[in-house]
Design the sequence.
């Protein structure tokens, strides 16, 4: 085990193979007890499996819940973490703090107490995890309920599940909290902002934050694919205009965005669509010197970089880092502030969980 505190902070002491790899890149982790003095031990209650990963497990299992559970159990048994070998992705967990090591230095983690109900905001792809038993599989919300334990390193991120927000909704918000936090940094008063995929979870948070930051002189528009979701957006006070289009059709979608912005391109385009092939609609909608923020995991670096060059678009292309300091609190506060946002998300997500 490395004694170097930098390495331990990053969790290298829990890596089995290949040696010297960071936990996320490692094939296998050691999830055995006891937890060390610089670790947090969590009694795990449920795993929110990443959407792409859950779909892959479900497809391999032919949709059978028992087989899905067996597949997930076998991955965790072999790897000591939940990292889907096909998609490479993980998810996040909910559990109760069992112990906080006396050598934890991270001030957010240090404030946790045994018994606190938390969600971890670092991926399951780097979290040592042991599952004793999967007790329930909930495909509608891509969640599994488990009995087991997980370990958080000193570099980890976790937030207490707020008492005033329904758990399902809080999780939905925490899953995408990097996007509204970056939106708050990027949007200045008076800006023209377009959100591609605006009717989804992260899209709604970004739209509200963009309007808050751009103010009455700014213009915030949403592009949404389905007519039903586009119609829901039209009723929101923080959305100035809604375009219903397919963002994979770059020319039509960008023309419609510019029309909605009074014939001008956007200062900032936020891409939160969950499908591939929407890079060029985003780039073509952005003004020279403006920024395109790709939060979508379906973004291709090559398509964005070569595509921008190919149309001589001098725009800043930003990768959607899921972490920004203060991201969880900012996002939960958006839910607390806006009954419009909260009711719509409750409608979309809580009905799914029933
Ligand atoms: P979501 O709720 O499913 O929203 C995605 C939205 O994209 C939906 O409103 C969907 O519309 C829309 N869309 C689908 N196809 C479209 C098309 N052809 N043209 C225009 N819009 C289209 O997803 P989410 O949870 O907000 O996540 C959004 C993206 O962020 C995903 O790619 C996810 O992987 C990524 N993400 C990134 C991070 C990070 O750290 N960077 C973290 C979490 C999530 P319909 O419902 O009408 O199909």
Sequence:
């Amino acid at each position: 085990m490395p004694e170097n505190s930098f390495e331990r902070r990053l969790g290298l002491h829990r890596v089995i193979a290949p040696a010297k790899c960071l936990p996320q890149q490692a094939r296998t982790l050691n999830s055995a007890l006891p937890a060390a003095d610089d670790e947090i031990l969590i009694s795990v209650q449920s795993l929110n499996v990443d959407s792409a990963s859950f779909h892959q497990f479900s497809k391999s299992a032919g949709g059978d819940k028992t087989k899905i559970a067996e597949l997930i159990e076998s991955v965790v048994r072999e790897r000591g973490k939940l990292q889907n070998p096909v998609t490479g992705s993980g998810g996040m967990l909910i559990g109760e703090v069992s112990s906080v090591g006396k050598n934890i230095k991270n001030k957010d983690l240090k404030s946790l107490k045994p018994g606190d109900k938390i969600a971890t905001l670092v991926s399951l792809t780097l979290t040592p995890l042991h599952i004793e038993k999967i007790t329930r599989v909930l495909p509608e919300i891509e969640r599994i309920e488990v009995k087991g334990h997980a370990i958080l390193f000193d570099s980890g991120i976790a937030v207490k599940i707020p008492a005033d927000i329904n758990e399902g909704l809080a999780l939905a918000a925490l899953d995408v909290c990097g996007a509204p936090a970056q939106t708050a940094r990027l949007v200045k008063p008076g800006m023209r902002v377009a959100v591609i995929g605006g009717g989804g979870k992260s899209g709604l948070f970004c739209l509200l934050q963009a309007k808050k930051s751009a103010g009455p002189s700014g213009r915030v528009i949403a592009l949404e694919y389905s007519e039903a979701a586009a119609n829901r957006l039209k009723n929101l006070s923080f959305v100035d205009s809604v375009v219903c289009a397919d963002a994979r059709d770059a020319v039509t979608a960008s023309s419609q965005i510019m029309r909605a912005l009074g014939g001008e391109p956007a200062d900032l385009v936020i891409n939160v669509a969950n499908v591939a092939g929407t890079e060029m609609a985003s780039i073509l909608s952005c003004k020279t010197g403006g920024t395109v923020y790709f939060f979508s995991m379906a973004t291709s670096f090559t398509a964005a970089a070569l595509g921008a060059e190919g149309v001589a678009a001098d725009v800043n292309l930003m990768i959607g880092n899921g972490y920004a300091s203060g991201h969880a609190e900012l996002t939960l506060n958006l839910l607390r502030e806006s009954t419009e946002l909260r009711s719509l998300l409750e409608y979309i997500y809580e009905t799914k969980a029933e």
In short: The mean pLDDT is 95. Residues 175-176, 178, 196-197, 199-203, 223-226, 229, 246-248, 272-275, 278, 295-298, 320, 322 surround NAP (CB under 6 Å). The chain is about 35% helix and 25% strand.
